Amino acid sequence: MTAVRNAAAAEMQREADEAVRVLREGGLILYPTDTVWGIGCDATNAAAVERIYRLKRSENKKSMLVLCASAEMTVRYVNKAPGIAFDVMEMATKPLTLILPGAVGVAGNLVPEEGTLGVRVPDHEFCRLLLRGLRRPLVSTSANLSGEATPAGLEEVAREIVDGVDFVVNPRFEGKPTRKASSIIAFGEGGEVKIIRE
Questions:
Q1: Considering the entire predicted model, what is its pTM?
Q2: What is the DSSP letter of 63?
Q3: Which one, of 177, 191, 187, lies nearest residue 38 by Cα?
Q4: Are 88 and 76 in contact (CB under 8 A)?
């Protein structure tokens, strides 16, 4: 059994390494998360972020969040987040996106006027491998054209999206996603809290 497990882990690592190579070259990937399938790119690469907007036919800077490997990584990209936000992040028992003030170090075209950044630490093995390899935040936006329904699985993703990315992760590495969008809580610099989506 262990040999089978090790082979599966090695295969997943190879797939993640290939996806990271594409991301580092400014490419877009279609990949599974702990919620729904997402379109991703290196969150520090403005040209790649622009490609996602074009692919989705959207310029809504509030619609794209980033995945970070940990609270420690998050702190490097939001410099005004109140401590309570990290307490909430630690206690979350289901996928939770935090809207945090003081976005820094990510592509400017990812940040709305109010200077916030949506961040989630995914509980998902493949995403963890991506983030470990990339060592930067990863853009995560639902794999749909603007105004259309969010596809729960790869089989529901529009052909235009599949054809518009540079790498599609094998659905074998999907894991057990919730197949619905995460909850969203916004935090102000002074610790103010606003629930955006339950």
A1: 0.95
A2: S
A3: 177
A4: no
Name which of 70, 57, 59 is nearest 138 in CA terms: 70
Between β-strands 183-187 and 167-168, what pairing exists: parallel, antiparallel or unpaired? Answer: unpaired
What pLDDT shows up at residue 63?
A: 81
Residues 184-197 as b or e (16 or more Cβ within 10 Å = b): bbbbbeeeeeeeee
Please report where in the chains the tokens 């809504």 appear, as a residue: 60
Residue-wise pLDDT tens digits, 118-140 = 999 999 999 999 999 999 999 99
**What is the total residue count of the chain?**
198
CB atoms within 10 A of CB 15: 19
Task: Give the type of residue at 126.
Answer: F
Q: List all residues 6 or more positions away from 172 whose beta carbon is below 8 Å from its beta carbon.
A: none
* Token output for 147: 């105004």
Query: How many C-beta neighbours within 10 Å does residue 176 have?
Result: 7
Does residue 1 have a pLDDT over 80? no
- Residues pairing with 132 in the sheet: none
The tokens for 47 are: 């040209």
